[in-house]
Amino acid sequence: MEHEFQEGKEEVIQAWYMDDSDEDQRLPHHREPKEFIPLDKLAELGLLSWRLDADKYETDENLKKIREARGYSYVDICDVCPEKLPNYEAKLKSFFEEHLHTDEEIRYCLEGSGYFDVRDQDDRWIRVAVKKGGMIVLPAGIYHRFTLDTNNYIKAMRLFVGEPIWTPYNRPHDHLPARKEYLDALTKKEGAKQAVEAL
After folding, report:
1. Alpha-carbon distance 113 to 13, whole Å?
2. Is 105 annotated as a binding residue?
3. Is 30 annotated as a binding-site member?
């Protein structure tokens, strides 16, 4: 069910390697030349993604199937923008601190857009741009951060298994079981990939 996209429409999830510039975090931060990454590469890092119909999120059967299959019982909707988020600039800076969670982070963009940055196996930053209709799952234990883009607005659905726990553990927190489990899963995937390539 992962990577379900409607043909002939603008991509709602794109990814690329980031430059090392300290400019405004809301800029795209492409390398020169640009280095886009296929969604399959994100899947190797444990990220899941879907394209859904954000205009019908309340009645969408595809969203319902994903929630049932993955046990996402908790849902809320939040608006992140200067008008609706108190201490907006300070909050945005805190979201951009590199951190991990001990549970998945599930976000479904209903309006607007934003960037989720994740680390690859070599600790390089990948920027994942999510627009309306894009839903992503960041695995527990992956180091990541979030920022809005220059539009300064996202309306996102947050999903969770059971009661939500939003605790961020800023890097370094390599001793946490969730981090160790994530790295073990990456190593196994890499090993399986090499075995297939050797055939």
Report:
1. 10
2. yes
3. no
What lies within 8 Å, CB to CB, of 33 at 6+ separation is none
Entry pTM:
0.92
Determine whether the annotation assigns residue 4 to a binding site.
no
**pLDDT digit string, tens, across residues 58-84:** 999 999 999 999 999 999 999 999 999
**Residue among 67, 168, 79, 153 at smallest CA distance from 115:** 153
Spell out the domain ranges in the chain: 13-198
Report how far residue 180's alpha carbon sits from residue 186's, in angstroms, rounded to the nearest whole number: 10
Tell whether 99 is in a known binding site: yes
Cβ–Cβ under 8 Å, residues 148 and 110: no
Q: List the chain residues with pLDDT less than 70.
A: 1-9, 199
- In terms of CATH, what superfamily is 13-198? Jelly Rolls (2.60.120.10)
Residues in the chain, total? 199
